[in-house]
Input
Amino acid sequence: MSGRLMVVGLGPGDAGGLTRDAEEALRAAEALYGYGPYLDRVPAREGQARFPSDNREERGRAEAALRHAAQGADVAVVSGGDPGVFAMAASVCEAIEAGPDAWRALEIAIIPGITAMLAVAARAGAPLGHDFCAISLSDNLKPWELIERRLDAAAAAGFVIALYNPVSRARPWQLGKALAVLSQRLSGATPIILGRAVGRSDETLTITTLDRAAGLSADMATLIIVGSKETRVIARPGRSPLVYTPRATERVSA
Ligand code: SAH
Output
Protein backbone atom coordinates (compact mmCIF):
# COMPACT_ATOMS: atom_id res chain seq x y z
CA MET A 1 0.00 0.00 0.00
CA SER A 2 1.41 3.41 -0.93
CA GLY A 3 0.80 6.41 1.27
CA ARG A 4 -0.28 9.90 0.50
CA LEU A 5 0.77 13.22 1.95
CA MET A 6 -1.73 16.06 1.76
CA VAL A 7 -0.73 19.62 2.65
CA VAL A 8 -3.96 21.37 3.52
CA GLY A 9 -4.73 25.10 3.74
CA LEU A 10 -7.25 25.90 6.47
CA GLY A 11 -7.95 29.45 5.30
CA PRO A 12 -7.51 32.48 7.54
CA GLY A 13 -9.93 31.66 10.33
CA ASP A 14 -13.21 29.98 10.96
CA ALA A 15 -14.73 27.09 9.06
CA GLY A 16 -16.49 29.45 6.62
CA GLY A 17 -13.16 30.06 4.90
CA LEU A 18 -12.35 26.36 4.45
CA THR A 19 -12.71 25.01 0.91
CA ARG A 20 -14.65 21.82 0.24
CA ASP A 21 -11.48 20.16 -1.02
CA ALA A 22 -9.76 20.98 2.26
CA GLU A 23 -12.69 19.64 4.24
CA GLU A 24 -12.61 16.42 2.25
CA ALA A 25 -8.84 16.03 2.71
CA LEU A 26 -9.15 16.52 6.47
CA ARG A 27 -11.89 13.90 6.58
CA ALA A 28 -9.85 11.41 4.58
CA ALA A 29 -6.68 11.77 6.68
CA GLU A 30 -5.73 9.04 9.14
CA ALA A 31 -3.23 11.34 10.81
CA LEU A 32 -2.94 15.12 11.15
CA TYR A 33 0.29 17.06 11.66
CA GLY A 34 0.57 20.78 12.30
CA TYR A 35 1.17 23.71 14.60
CA GLY A 36 -1.02 23.10 17.69
CA PRO A 37 -3.40 26.10 17.32
CA TYR A 38 -4.05 25.20 13.67
CA LEU A 39 -4.83 21.58 14.56
CA ASP A 40 -7.27 22.89 17.18
CA ARG A 41 -9.30 24.41 14.35
CA VAL A 42 -9.95 20.98 12.83
CA PRO A 43 -12.94 19.17 14.36
CA ALA A 44 -11.95 15.95 16.10
CA ARG A 45 -12.71 12.73 14.25
CA GLU A 46 -12.60 9.30 15.81
CA GLY A 47 -9.68 7.15 14.75
CA GLN A 48 -7.68 10.12 13.46
CA ALA A 49 -4.32 10.57 15.18
CA ARG A 50 -3.02 14.09 15.86
CA PHE A 51 0.58 15.20 16.10
CA PRO A 52 0.78 18.84 17.21
CA SER A 53 4.14 20.58 17.12
CA ASP A 54 5.67 23.95 17.81
CA ASN A 55 5.51 26.79 15.27
CA ARG A 56 9.23 26.74 14.56
CA GLU A 57 9.55 23.02 13.87
CA GLU A 58 8.39 23.11 10.27
CA ARG A 59 11.12 20.95 8.75
CA GLY A 60 10.94 18.32 11.51
CA ARG A 61 7.15 18.25 11.19
CA ALA A 62 7.39 17.78 7.41
CA GLU A 63 9.84 14.89 7.87
CA ALA A 64 7.71 13.21 10.51
CA ALA A 65 4.63 13.45 8.26
CA LEU A 66 6.57 12.07 5.27
CA ARG A 67 7.88 9.14 7.33
CA HIS A 68 4.35 8.40 8.44
CA ALA A 69 2.96 8.57 4.87
CA ALA A 70 5.80 6.35 3.66
CA GLN A 71 4.44 3.63 5.95
CA GLY A 72 1.34 3.59 3.76
CA ALA A 73 -0.90 6.04 5.62
CA ASP A 74 -3.07 8.90 4.40
CA VAL A 75 -1.47 11.85 6.21
CA ALA A 76 -2.39 15.54 6.25
CA VAL A 77 -0.18 18.44 7.28
CA VAL A 78 -2.23 21.55 7.99
CA SER A 79 -1.32 25.22 7.47
CA GLY A 80 -3.21 28.42 8.22
CA GLY A 81 -4.26 30.31 5.09
CA ASP A 82 -2.65 28.76 2.03
CA PRO A 83 0.00 26.08 2.57
CA GLY A 84 2.13 27.46 -0.26
CA VAL A 85 2.42 30.99 1.16
CA PHE A 86 5.23 31.24 3.75
CA ALA A 87 4.12 27.85 5.02
CA MET A 88 4.33 24.05 5.08
CA ALA A 89 4.13 23.14 1.37
CA ALA A 90 7.66 24.46 0.75
CA SER A 91 8.95 22.71 3.90
CA VAL A 92 7.52 19.44 2.59
CA CYS A 93 9.18 19.97 -0.80
CA GLU A 94 12.52 20.78 0.87
CA ALA A 95 12.28 17.62 2.97
CA ILE A 96 11.47 15.51 -0.09
CA GLU A 97 14.39 16.93 -2.07
CA ALA A 98 16.83 16.16 0.74
CA GLY A 99 15.19 12.92 1.87
CA PRO A 100 15.23 9.24 0.92
CA ASP A 101 14.09 8.09 -2.57
CA ALA A 102 10.95 6.51 -1.07
CA TRP A 103 9.58 9.99 -0.34
CA ARG A 104 9.71 10.91 -4.04
CA ALA A 105 7.43 7.96 -4.81
CA LEU A 106 4.68 9.22 -2.50
CA GLU A 107 1.52 10.85 -3.78
CA ILE A 108 1.65 14.52 -2.72
CA ALA A 109 -1.49 16.65 -2.79
CA ILE A 110 -1.30 20.36 -1.97
CA ILE A 111 -4.78 21.69 -1.17
CA PRO A 112 -4.90 25.49 -1.49
CA GLY A 113 -6.56 27.81 1.00
CA ILE A 114 -7.46 31.49 1.21
CA THR A 115 -4.27 33.27 2.14
CA ALA A 116 -4.31 36.11 4.70
CA MET A 117 -3.63 38.89 2.18
CA LEU A 118 -6.72 37.93 0.17
CA ALA A 119 -8.89 37.76 3.28
CA VAL A 120 -7.67 41.15 4.53
CA ALA A 121 -7.95 42.73 1.07
CA ALA A 122 -11.54 41.57 0.74
CA ARG A 123 -12.49 43.16 4.08
CA ALA A 124 -11.09 46.54 2.98
CA GLY A 125 -12.30 46.67 -0.62
CA ALA A 126 -9.98 45.87 -3.51
CA PRO A 127 -6.46 47.06 -2.62
CA LEU A 128 -4.91 44.24 -4.68
CA GLY A 129 -6.85 45.26 -7.79
CA HIS A 130 -3.63 46.01 -9.68
CA ASP A 131 -0.04 44.67 -9.50
CA PHE A 132 1.06 43.62 -6.03
CA CYS A 133 3.62 41.53 -4.19
CA ALA A 134 3.96 39.80 -0.82
CA ILE A 135 6.97 40.11 1.49
CA SER A 136 7.51 38.37 4.82
CA LEU A 137 9.17 40.65 7.39
CA SER A 138 10.57 37.66 9.27
CA ASP A 139 14.35 37.62 9.22
CA ASN A 140 14.49 34.13 10.72
CA LEU A 141 14.97 32.61 7.28
CA LYS A 142 16.65 35.44 5.34
CA PRO A 143 18.92 38.38 6.16
CA TRP A 144 17.28 41.67 7.18
CA GLU A 145 19.31 43.57 4.53
CA LEU A 146 17.56 41.54 1.83
CA ILE A 147 14.15 42.44 3.26
CA GLU A 148 15.01 46.14 3.19
CA ARG A 149 16.25 45.86 -0.38
CA ARG A 150 13.04 44.11 -1.49
CA LEU A 151 10.81 46.63 0.30
CA ASP A 152 12.65 49.49 -1.37
CA ALA A 153 12.50 47.84 -4.82
CA ALA A 154 8.82 46.93 -4.47
CA ALA A 155 7.86 50.46 -3.43
CA ALA A 156 10.01 51.96 -6.20
CA ALA A 157 8.36 49.68 -8.77
CA GLY A 158 4.87 50.80 -7.72
CA PHE A 159 3.60 47.50 -6.31
CA VAL A 160 0.97 47.33 -3.60
CA ILE A 161 2.77 45.35 -0.88
CA ALA A 162 1.31 42.74 1.48
CA LEU A 163 3.47 42.34 4.58
CA TYR A 164 3.30 38.94 6.28
CA ASN A 165 4.86 38.23 9.71
CA PRO A 166 5.15 41.93 10.61
CA VAL A 167 6.04 41.45 14.29
CA SER A 168 6.83 38.77 16.82
CA ARG A 169 8.19 38.82 20.34
CA ALA A 170 11.66 38.08 18.99
CA ARG A 171 11.31 40.70 16.23
CA PRO A 172 10.05 43.90 17.86
CA TRP A 173 11.73 46.61 15.70
CA GLN A 174 11.47 45.24 12.17
CA LEU A 175 8.05 46.66 11.32
CA GLY A 176 9.05 50.21 12.31
CA LYS A 177 12.18 49.93 10.20
CA ALA A 178 10.21 48.52 7.26
CA LEU A 179 7.75 51.44 7.39
CA ALA A 180 10.68 53.87 7.51
CA VAL A 181 12.19 52.27 4.39
CA LEU A 182 8.85 52.49 2.58
CA SER A 183 8.43 56.13 3.67
CA GLN A 184 11.51 57.07 1.66
CA ARG A 185 9.67 56.06 -1.52
CA LEU A 186 6.00 56.62 -0.71
CA SER A 187 3.98 59.64 0.41
CA GLY A 188 2.79 59.82 4.01
CA ALA A 189 -0.77 59.76 2.66
CA THR A 190 -0.35 56.24 1.20
CA PRO A 191 -3.26 54.07 2.43
CA ILE A 192 -2.34 51.31 4.89
CA ILE A 193 -4.60 48.44 5.96
CA LEU A 194 -3.96 46.40 9.09
CA GLY A 195 -6.06 43.24 9.33
CA ARG A 196 -5.79 41.26 12.54
CA ALA A 197 -7.13 37.73 13.08
CA VAL A 198 -9.30 38.14 10.00
CA GLY A 199 -11.98 35.46 9.75
CA ARG A 200 -11.89 34.82 13.52
CA SER A 201 -14.17 36.12 16.27
CA ASP A 202 -11.58 38.67 17.47
CA GLU A 203 -10.99 40.12 14.00
CA THR A 204 -10.09 43.80 13.68
CA LEU A 205 -9.51 45.98 10.62
CA THR A 206 -7.74 49.34 10.70
CA ILE A 207 -7.43 51.68 7.74
CA THR A 208 -4.88 54.44 8.09
CA THR A 209 -2.02 56.17 6.27
CA LEU A 210 1.70 55.52 6.13
CA ASP A 211 2.60 58.56 8.27
CA ARG A 212 0.32 57.29 11.06
CA ALA A 213 1.03 53.58 10.77
CA ALA A 214 4.19 53.55 12.92
CA GLY A 215 2.18 54.24 16.08
CA LEU A 216 -0.26 51.39 15.53
CA SER A 217 0.01 48.05 17.20
CA ALA A 218 0.48 44.94 15.11
CA ASP A 219 1.25 41.40 16.19
CA MET A 220 1.82 37.94 14.79
CA ALA A 221 -1.81 37.65 13.68
CA THR A 222 -1.71 40.90 11.68
CA LEU A 223 -1.30 41.27 7.94
CA ILE A 224 -0.52 44.73 6.55
CA ILE A 225 -1.29 45.98 3.07
CA VAL A 226 0.64 49.04 1.92
CA GLY A 227 -0.98 50.85 -0.99
CA SER A 228 0.72 52.20 -4.10
CA LYS A 229 0.50 55.68 -5.58
CA GLU A 230 -2.67 54.61 -7.34
CA THR A 231 -4.48 53.19 -4.28
CA ARG A 232 -7.57 55.20 -3.36
CA VAL A 233 -9.86 55.49 -0.33
CA ILE A 234 -13.61 56.08 -0.65
CA ALA A 235 -15.13 57.55 2.52
CA ARG A 236 -18.64 56.29 3.28
CA PRO A 237 -21.22 57.57 5.74
CA GLY A 238 -21.54 55.26 8.74
CA ARG A 239 -19.40 52.57 7.12
CA SER A 240 -15.70 51.90 7.01
CA PRO A 241 -13.98 53.29 3.91
CA LEU A 242 -13.42 51.25 0.78
CA VAL A 243 -9.77 50.99 -0.23
CA TYR A 244 -9.06 50.05 -3.81
CA THR A 245 -6.39 50.10 -6.46
CA PRO A 246 -7.84 50.90 -9.89
CA ARG A 247 -7.47 48.32 -12.64
CA ALA A 248 -5.71 50.70 -15.01
CA THR A 249 -2.50 52.70 -14.57
CA GLU A 250 -1.99 55.37 -17.20
CA ARG A 251 1.32 56.82 -16.07
CA VAL A 252 4.63 55.09 -16.76
CA SER A 253 6.44 56.47 -13.72
CA ALA A 254 5.79 54.28 -10.69
N1 SAH B 1 0.18 30.42 5.18
C1 SAH B 1 -0.37 31.61 5.80
C2 SAH B 1 0.72 32.61 6.17
C3 SAH B 1 1.69 32.10 7.19
S1 SAH B 1 2.79 33.36 7.73
C4 SAH B 1 -1.39 32.25 4.84
O1 SAH B 1 -1.44 31.85 3.69
O2 SAH B 1 -2.11 33.15 5.28
C5 SAH B 1 1.91 33.97 9.15
C6 SAH B 1 1.42 35.40 8.90
O3 SAH B 1 0.24 35.37 8.10
C7 SAH B 1 1.01 36.16 10.14
O4 SAH B 1 2.12 36.74 10.81
C8 SAH B 1 0.11 37.23 9.56
O5 SAH B 1 0.86 38.24 8.92
C9 SAH B 1 -0.61 36.45 8.46
N2 SAH B 1 -1.90 35.89 8.89
C10 SAH B 1 -2.23 34.58 9.02
N3 SAH B 1 -3.52 34.43 9.37
C11 SAH B 1 -4.03 35.70 9.46
C12 SAH B 1 -5.34 36.22 9.78
N4 SAH B 1 -6.36 35.41 10.08
N5 SAH B 1 -5.50 37.56 9.78
C13 SAH B 1 -4.47 38.39 9.47
N6 SAH B 1 -3.23 37.94 9.15
C14 SAH B 1 -3.01 36.62 9.16
Remarks:
- Residues 12-13, 79-82, 85-87, 115-116, 120, 164-166, 195-200, 220-223 surround S-adenosyl-L-homocysteine (CB under 6 Å).
